[in-house]
Write a structure and sequence with these properties.
The protein is mostly beta strands. Helices cover 0% and strands 48% of the residues. It is built from no helices and eleven strands. Strands 2, 4, 5, 6, 9, 10 and 11 form a seven-stranded mixed sheet that branches. It has a four-stranded antiparallel sheet with strand order 1-3-8-7, with no helix packed on it. The radius of gyration is 13 Å and the shape is globular.
Length: 126
């Protein structure tokens, strides 16, 4: 069983930055996709970014491309999401997800992920 634990959320002013972390443990099978999703109040959970562990490719949702960066530290079994120029629309609970498979064209489909963290809340407000 895989456990994912997110941290790093909080309150930030518009234009500010935050870095989220996701600690991965209990892995017994290779994880081919490590991703971040978010869910704002009253909205569906949406894909933010994905890291393909097989080739190191990264993927981003249109609303965060150019502002967010996903990365992985293999030695620490941790995935990061660096978020810059945060805006009120980025307010959401952010979830870490891991998949036993990976499909580049469908990385944003949440049903393809096998493991989920509990989420960390990000609030962007002045």
């Amino acid at each position: 069983q895989v456990q994912l634990v997110e941290s790093g959320g909080g309150l930030v002013q518009p234009g500010g930055s935050l870095t989220l972390s996701c600690a991965v443990s209990g892995r017994s099978s290779p994880l081919y996709a490590l991703a971040w999703f978010r869910q704002a109040p009253g909205k569906e959970r949406e894909g933010v970014s994905c890291f393909s562990t097989g080739d190191g490719m990264t993927y981003y949702g249109d609303s965060v491309a150019g502002r967010f960066t996903i990365s992985r530290d293999n030695a620490k079994n941790t995935v990061y999401l660096q978020m810059n120029n945060l805006q009120p629309d980025d307010t959401a609970v952010y979830y870490c997800a891991a998949g036993l498979g990976f499909w580049a064209s469908d990385w944003w489909r949440r049903h393809l992920y096998d493991y989920w963290g509990q989420g960390t809340r990000v609030t962007v407000s002045s």
